[in-house]
Design goal:
The protein has 183 residues and is of the alpha+beta class. The protein has five helices and seven strands. The chain has a single domain, classed as 3-Layer(aba) Sandwich (Aminopeptidase), CATH 3.40.630.30.
């Protein structure tokens, strides 16, 4: 059982929460099939660079048997996103050229032991719900070797609109850009 909490800026995220998010990031992006080159320190620095640009964060927490949120150490997943505009400094500049004004989901990850429980879907639905009235569209990119994420995006109504090669964490991979139109 989990609950999703929205944090509009990093000011609401404690240092412990930031460390937990970084640990989930490392677990997800250094394992097969990604094999990116991250450790907790480099992941935290990368995530803090997103938060310093005003990125919003959704965090999934474990709940106890009574439905109450458990305390520190209980983050099961996260999603981080930012508005794309001419001032957005992205490591993926092709997004800036075509999707200005859109909300961009930069990262999403679920801890290994909680995968397959619908937490990624809950995070996506919460971020879509919280942004749909403010932005004309919602954009994200996913590696082509992540079929579960491709399936999730398509099941939520996202459409693939582009693809490109990118290097992240020292690994070159095919990226698929997906877009969701807010109606």
């Amino acid at each position: 059982m989990s609950s999703i909490q929205f944090y509009p800026s990093s000011a609401y995220l404690s240092a412990q929460m930031q460390q937990e998010v970084a640990a989930i990031f490392v677990d997800n992006f250094t394992a097969a099939p990604r094999y990116e080159n991250w450790d907790n320190e480099s992941a935290l620095a990368y995530l803090q660079s997103l938060w310093s640009k005003g990125a919003a964060t959704w965090v999934s927490y474990k709940k106890d048997n009574l439905g109450n949120r458990e305390e520190e150490g209980m983050i099961t997943g996260f999603a981080i996103g930012i508005i794309i505009n001419k001032h957005t400094q992205s490591h993926e500049p092709q997004l800036l050229n075509h999707y200005a004004g859109a909300f961009y989901l930069e990262e999403i990850a679920v801890c290994t032991e909680a995968q397959g429980q619908g937490i990624g879907k809950q995070l996506m639905q919460a971020s879509l719900s919280d942004t749909q009235n403010s932005y004309p569209s919602y954009v994200t990119r996913v590696r082509s070797d992540a079929p579960a994420m491709v399936y999730l995006l398509e099941s939520l109504g996202f459409k693939q609109v582009d693809s490109y090669l990118a290097t992240k964490g020292g690994v070159i991979s095919q990226r698929l850009i997906y877009r969701y139109e807010n109606n």
